[in-house]
Amino acid sequence: MTTNVDFGELQYGWELAYQHQDTEQPLWQEAAIPVIDDAIELLRSAGARSVVDLGCGDGRNLAALVAAGFSCMGVDIAPTGLAHARTTAQPAFLLRADATDIGLIDNSVDAVTCFDVFGQIQDPSSLVREARRILRPGGTLVVNAFTPEDGTYGEGEEIAPHTFAYKDTLFRYYDEDSVRELFSEWEITSLYRRSWDDPPHGDFRPYPHRHDNWIVLATPR
């Protein structure tokens, strides 16, 4: 398969998506994604207190983590997304940075979360390495990743197996073997699938759709 699409540019297309949204409405629905309740229980069970949310976007998931009582930092590359997060996810600390290189000191946080982002990273293994670097020994990582059964699979231009360029953004979908390979140096304590229906997202995805996800809870070995 040949393509002229630049993988590196696609992960920054979200800033344009946030800029084009109605300033009175979030790009996504206002509520956190349904898996957040599961994640909060998993983090509480692990004894986490400090959480870094990689790819926090407009803060809808970060706000739920703050409300649950965690001490939170949100990280995102898109300044417009972070501007929305400042109104929804206080008092979380917000940092504009690439989620694969955020500059925190080693072994400094209890938990890392990454929601609806794992498929938008050019090199997902680099995000996994960064999460491992900043986690304290015994720390917890919670992520979701779209499966090939997701309702958005196949939209846009296929630029690699299970990988599509859609409206200047990157969407990668994972089978179970791919997920396990990415976390081969981790202890996967929970891996399961969860589906939910999403409403339209403005002009970005202007119709209801169903998401099918892997939910991964892992700790570094």
Characterise the protein shown here.
By secondary structure, the protein is α/β, with parallel strands linked by helices. It has one domain: 3-Layer(aba) Sandwich (Rossmann fold), CATH 3.40.50. A 7-stranded mixed β-sheet has the order 3-2-1-4-5-10-9, with helices on both faces. Strands 6-7-8 form a 3-stranded antiparallel β-sheet. The chain is globular and about 40 Å long. The termini are far apart. The model has no long low-confidence stretch (mean pLDDT 88).
Uncertain regions spanning at least 5 consecutive residues: none
Major β-sheet annotation: 7 strands, mixed
Mean pLDDT: 88
Strand order of the largest sheet: 3-2-1-4-5-10-9
CATH class: Alpha Beta
Q: How would you describe the shape?
A: globular
Distance between the termini: 36 Å
List keywords for this structure.
7 helices; globular; Rossmann fold; SAM-dependent_MTases_sf; alpha/beta; S-adenosylmethionine-dependent methyltransferase activity; 32% strand; 7-stranded mixed beta sheet; 221 residues
Short description:
This is SAM-dependent methyltransferase. Keywords: Methyltransferase, Transferase. The protein is α/β, with parallel strands linked by helices and 221 residues long.
Which secondary structure elements does this structure contain, and how are they paired or packed?
Elements: H1 7-10, H2 14-20, H3 35-45, E1 50-54, H4 60-67, E2 71-76, H5 79-88, E3 93-96, E4 109-114, H6 124-134, E5 135-146, E6 157-160, E7 163-166, E8 169-172, H7 176-182, E9 186-198, E10 209-220
